[in-house]
Specification:
This protein is mostly helical and about 240 residues long. It is built from seven helices and no strands.
C-alpha cells in the first residue's frame, strides 16, 4: 500500500534534517507576544532607515513615483550619470522624510511598556516622565537615528554638488556648441545655402538654432538700448 500523503512535500532523501526544518517552518507563525511583536516592529523601523529597499510595503508606491518625477522635472537630467544622480537625490530625500516618523513611532512603541509603570492620575505627567525615561534608557538608539539622518543629509549635499558640477559642464559645452552652430547656420543663410546641423556633428535642430539666434539678437538689442539710456541719463 502506498503511503498516505498529508499534502506536505516529503523530506529529501539523504537529508534527515529536512523534515525537521519543514515541520519547524510550518509551526512558525511569527512573534505572538506583545514584546515579540514590538521587537519585530523595531526591526522593521531600523530596516527602513538602513536597508536598501527604498519604498517599504507600508508606503505608497504611487506617491514615491510622483516624488521622483518632481526631481526629474526640476533637474531635467541628460545621460545615464545625471539620471542616476537625480535618482539618488530623490531616494535620499524620501528616506530623510521617513526619519521623523520613524523616531516618533519608535518612541511610541518603547513608551507603551514604560507608561504602565507610572503611577499617576495625570496623563500629561505620565507621558512626560515616560519620555524622560525612554530618552535616558534608549539614548543610543535615538542617537543612531540622528546619525542616520545626518549621514543621509551629507550624502544628499555631496550628490547635489556633483550633479551641479556635471550639469554646469554640460551647459557650458552646449552653449559653445550652439554658438558654433549659429555661426555656421548664419553663414549658410547669407549664402542662400541649405544647412543640416548634423553634418557638423551638432545635435541641435534647425528650429533650435534659429530660436537661439533670435534670442541672442534680442538680448544684444536690449543691452544696446540699456547703454543708450544710461548715456542719455548721464548727459542730462
Amino acid at each position: 500500500m502506498a503511503p498516505v500523503s498529508n499534502g506536505n512535500p516529503a523530506p529529501a532523501a539523504g537529508n534527515p534534517g529536512a523534515g525537521v526544518n519543514q515541520a519547524n517552518a510550518q509551526k512558525s507563525t511569527g512573534p505572538r507576544t506583545a514584546a515579540g511583536k514590538q521587537r519585530s516592529s523595531l526591526n522593521a523601523l531600523r530596516h527602513g532607515l538602513t536597508g536598501h529597499v527604498i519604498v517599504l510595503p507600508t508606503e505608497d508606491l504611487a506617491a514615491y513615483q510622483r516624488h521622483h518625477q518632481r526631481f526629474v522635472d526640476q533637474f531635467q537630467p541628460k545621460g545615464a550619470l545625471e539620471e542616476q544622480l537625480v535618482q539618488s537625490l530623490g531616494d535620499t530625500i524620501w528616506r530623510l522624510n521617513r526619519v521623523p516618523a520613524t523616531e516618533a513611532t519608535y518612541l511610541t512603541l518603547i513608551s507603551e511598556d514604560h507608561i504602565r509603570a507610572i503611577r499617576t492620575n495625570e496623563p500629561r505627567a505620565a507621558s512626560a516622565v515616560t519620555l524622560s525615561q525612554v530618552f535616558h534608557l534608549r539614548s543610543q538608539s535615538l542617537t543612531n537615528i540622528s546619525l542616520y539622518e545626518q549621514r543621509l543629509a551629507r550624502f544628499f549635499d555631496r550628490t547635489l554638488k556633483q550633479l551641479h558640477e556635471i550639469q554646469a559642464e554640460r551647459f557650458e559645452h552646449e552653449r559653445r556648441q550652439i554658438d558654433d552652430a549659429a555661426e555656421i547656420f548664419e553663414m549658410h543663410r547669407d549664402r542662400n545655402l541649405p544647412y543640416d546641423p548634423t553634418q557638423d556633428g551638432f545635435v541641435f535642430s534647425t528650429a533650435e538654432i534659429q530660436a537661439f539666434i533670435q534670442r541672442r539678437d534680442r538680448l544684444e538689442e536690449a543691452y544696446a538700448y540699456s547703454e543708450d539710456e544710461n548715456h542719455l541719463a548721464a548727459a542730462s
